[in-house]
Amino acid sequence: MKYVKWILGITFIVFVGGWIVVKAMSEEQPPINPSLEADELANQVMDALGKDAFDTLPMISWKLGNHEYLWDKTTNQAVISWGKMKVLMNLDQVDGIAFKNGQQLDTIEDDHFIQQAWEYWCNDSFWAFAPFKMNDPGTVRTLVSNPKKGKKGLMVSYQSGGVTPGDSYLWVLDESNQIKGFQLWVKILPVKGAFASWSDWKYFDNQIKLAETRKFSFITIPISDFKTGNSFVDFGFSENPFRKI
Fold first, then answer.
1. What tens digit of pLDDT does each residue of 213-235 get?
2. Quick check: helix, strand or coil at residue 109?
3. What is the CA radius of gyration of the chain?
């Protein structure tokens, strides 16, 4: 009995200690206050990154960890691969077909992996292309003065859409409105207002500017191998993989 009480006591201390640390590291989210000035700043930031060129780009691929993506932006379809799995998905309908070791799965397994692929897509495509999503449906934009690690900030709140509506991201900008990173108020992270830097910006297709490094104080988001193209041949396919959907 004493042993059980000792275990419960240690567990309680760890829980309380963890809660105190999380509270100490967290910051209160700025109030949401949409304005035309915030909308204009969002457009300026996206224009500097090549938003028009990104919107008209036919196809792009990238990797995040062991997740690999090929996005046909003209039809809004994607090949999503991880481990032994590959899902061909219509992103507008959140539907498609799943393969394991090259074999198409039955309906029950198919539905499970399609949902899993959709959750991967929502998270990983955001981390890849979040700066171009400031005006997505369901978003509101707020100007914030003196944000963390920068001169000014633009908070984008996602009130609907995706897997976790209600999340907010405060983009930290330098004096030239270049992105330095963002603070996050998201359901998945216990620390509220954690800062992630965005760096190693490079041009793709001579017009589209993407960051190859995203880093918290002790965690790096491993995004790599951005590649743009005009057809499936540019990405090693001999035919359109979505013909099977």
1. 999 977 898 899 999 999 999 99
2. helix
3. 21
pTM for this structure?
0.83
Which residues are 119's β-sheet partners? none
Contact 207, 194 (CB under 8 A): no
Give the pLDDT score at 175.
86
pLDDT, tens digit (0-9, with 9 covering 90-100), for 87-106: 999 999 999 999 999 999 87
**Does an H or E element contain 48, and which?**
helix 36-48
Contacts 24+ apart (CB under 8 A), 172-181: 172/147, 172/148, 173/45, 174/150, 175/151, 177/41, 177/44, 177/45, 177/48, 178/48, 179/45, 179/49, 179/131, 179/211, 180/149, 180/150, 181/149, 181/214
Q: What angle do CA 225, 217, 21 make, to 5 degrees?
A: 140
**Distance (Å, whole) CA 180 – CA 199:** 7
What is the share, in percent, of the chain residues with pLDDT greater than 90? 67
**How many residues are listed for the chain in this entry?**
245
**Domains in the chain: boundaries:** 31-230
d(CA 186, CA 71): 25
Helix (H, G, I), strand (E, B) or coil at 137: coil
Beta strand 85-90 with 77-82: parallel, antiparallel or unpaired? Answer: antiparallel
Residue 241: both structure tokens together = 């993989």
Q: Sorting pLDDT into bands at 50, 70 and 90, what band is 239?
A: confident
Report how far Cα 72 is from the mean position of its chain's Cα atoms: 18
Task: Count, in order, helices (H) and strands (E) of the chain.
Answer: 4, 14
